[in-house]
């Protein structure tokens, strides 16, 4: 962890730069729906309705808005098949996969946290 910290953090530390980087990351992947959407797409759901059905509680309007924002941030790719009727599919970009290890760590931490809370220590 110390070696990774030295590679990422400036010396001397620049708190404003670190906070800005955290805010940028949270802006791009934060919120209630972005990570579940990425997880759904990475689990093979490519069509809008497949993604929608795989995420309990998300509305059509919210999914549409999030997908557009994620496309602008180059996390997903929207591919439109010109055949009639139009078929639209979504896929994760290589850029999206670049933070896959972070998602795995978050899942691991979330499981451990839940267990810690249940055990009460």
Automatic annotation (TrEMBL):
It comes from the Bacteria. InterPro entries: HTH_HxlR, WH-like_DNA-bd_sf, WH_DNA-bd_sf. GO terms for molecular function: DNA binding. The keyword Transcription applies. Keywords: DNA-binding, Transcription, Transcription regulation. Pfam families: HxlR (PF01638). Residues 19-118 form the HTH hxlR-type domain. This is Transcriptional regulator. It comes from Deminuibacter soli. The lineage of its organism: Bacteria, Pseudomonadati, Bacteroidota, Chitinophagia, Chitinophagales.
